[in-house]
From TrEMBL:
It comes from the Bacteria. Residues 90-293 form the Peptidase M28 domain. One of its GO terms (biological process) is proteolysis. It comes from Pacificimonas flava. Pfam families: Peptidase_M28. InterPro entries: M28_fam, Peptidase_M28. One of its GO terms (molecular function) is metalloexopeptidase activity. Coiled coil: none annotated. This is Peptidase M28.
């Protein structure tokens, strides 16, 4: 059994509930834009990819999040794709903390998609749920924090080239704009609108970090509880947060996707019928209430991290540890 320290969950003060709230309609609007045919699936190095990063820059600038990696928000890097070298970019923004700005919590969602798929009738893999939905939540979380900053700084990382091997997250780790030791925790946002609202959330990475009690506490304050579906652990290495884990930063995903039920991500209709297919399109069949609730919950967790006496850490039995 994983061992955690009681001190890791003790709070300096009892924080009042931030009561963050994300608009499902706002998420739907972002996803409709990001997954339109005009962007042709947001493959790295394409015009659709460039339009996507421009959209993200405009959104972060307008809501008041400031650049972190570079003055234009972009952290550019090159990748090999289809026997060519192409350039893409992470978009990195932050909202500075009011009390201890040198401390950071990071949220990451990949903005790239599948590009063109093999099907002959509709070749555009619009990548609405995977991962325009996570990108949309990232934008609206930044809007909430910009309007009501936390005591610590929050990094909003929209990563590129995740579908090519988590390459945007790796580019960030290789050239971090702040010391990795100051990033106390990283939370992934991937495929978050694959399921509607559930009052139960799962932890991808449960038992690996001292964050679990904070997740349970934040969930309870939000009228939800934690119950992670069987088989969830198999997905831990498949998204950007795993790159942060490899670098020693405590990293998890917290989402209703991995709660028990027939419609959980592992066995649900989205994974069976739409994942990495042209049918992953924006439309009325996507229920954004779960994604909105998950984004709000993550901000509640960040507020608890800010007020904890000690930063999150890996449990003693975890294969991951700080350097």
């Amino acid at each position: 059994m994983a061992v955690t320290s009681c001190a890791s969950t003790a709070l300096r003060t009892e924080p009042s509930s931030a009561e963050y709230s994300l608009s499902p309609d706002a998420l739907a609007a972002h996803v409709a834009w990001l997954s339109s045919d005009d962007l042709a699936g947001r493959e790295p190095g394409t015009e659709g990819d460039k339009d996507t990063t421009a959209y993200l820059v405009s959104q972060f600038r307008a809501l008041g999040a400031v650049p972190l990696a570079a003055p234009d928000y972009r952290q550019s890097f090159e990748i090999s794709l289809d026997e060519a070298t192409v350039q893409t970019a992470n978009v990195v923004a932050t909202v500075r903390g009011t009390r201890e700005p040198e401390r950071y919590v990071l949220f990451i969602a990949h903005h790239d998609g599948q590009g063109l798929c093999a099907e002959s009738n509709d070749r555009i893999c619009n990548s609405a749920v995977d991962n325009a939905s996570g990108t949309a939540v990232l934008i609206e979380m930044a809007r909430q924090v910009a309007a009501r900053p936390l005591p610590i700084s929050i990094i909003f990382l929209a990563s590129g080239a995740e579908e090519e091997g988590l390459l945007g997250a790796k580019a960030f780790i290789e050239d971090p704009p702040v010391p990795l030791a100051q990033i106390e925790a990283a939370f992934g946002l991937d495929t978050v609108a694959a399921r509607g609202y559930s009052d139960t959330v799962g932890i991808l990475g449960e038992g690996l970090t001292s964050l679990d009690p904070l997740v349970r506490r934040a969930a309870a304050r939000s009228g939800r509880h934690v119950d992670t579906a069987e088989g969830t652990a198999d997905f831990y290495r498949r998204s950007d947060h795993a790159v942060f884990a490899d670098a020693g930063v405590p990293a998890i995903m917290v989402t209703g996707l991995f709660a028990p039920g027939e419609d959980k991500f592992v066995t649900g209709a989205y994974a069976a019928n739409h994942y990495h297919r042209p049918s992953d399109e924006a439309g009325p069949t996507i229920d954004y209430r779960g994604a909105a609730a998950d984004g709000a919950l993550l901000l509640e967790i960040a507020a608890l991290v800010a007020d904890a006496e000690t930063p999150p850490r890996w449990t003693e039995n975890s294969i991951y540890q700080r350097p």
